[in-house]
Design the sequence.
């Protein structure tokens, strides 16, 4: 994306849903598009090399960030206007802390999906688009 950010996340994960909505990124960076990885949005196919069960994706500026790196970058970009955002920034803006905590966050996602009877995101037959 040339302006703003694109976040691809698991729309069936209640933690993921709430996390991306609470960040208040628009206050800091402008346009933010949230895309549910299960939605069938054609842009998701561009990122078929990333396992979306292993982490959300952030496409911002010239970079594509996955998993722990994505939440680290999101923490550095998010507003400090709410207590959630201040805590998020204080904890996850440290890359080592984000790498350490992310597997715990992913385990919480997987447990919640299992308890709700929801499957993992299907890679299906997503293929890299032909040029």
Sequence:
């Amino acid at each position: 994306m040339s302006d703003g950010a694109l976040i691809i996340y698991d729309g069936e994960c209640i933690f993921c849903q709430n996390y991306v909505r609470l960040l208040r990124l628009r206050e800091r960076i402008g346009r933010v598009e949230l895309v549910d990885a299960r939605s069938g949005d054609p842009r998701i196919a561009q990122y078929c090399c990333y396992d979306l069960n292993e982490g959300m994706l952030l496409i911002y500026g010239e970079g594509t960030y996955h998993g722990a790196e994505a939440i680290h970058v999101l923490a550095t970009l998010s507003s400090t206007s709410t207590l959630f955002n201040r805590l998020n920034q204080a904890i996850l803006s440290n890359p080592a802390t984000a790498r350490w905590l992310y597997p715990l966050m992913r385990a919480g996602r997987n447990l919640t999906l299992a308890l709700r009877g929801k499957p993992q995101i299907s890679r299906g037959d997503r293929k890299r688009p032909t040029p």
The chain has a mean pLDDT of 85.
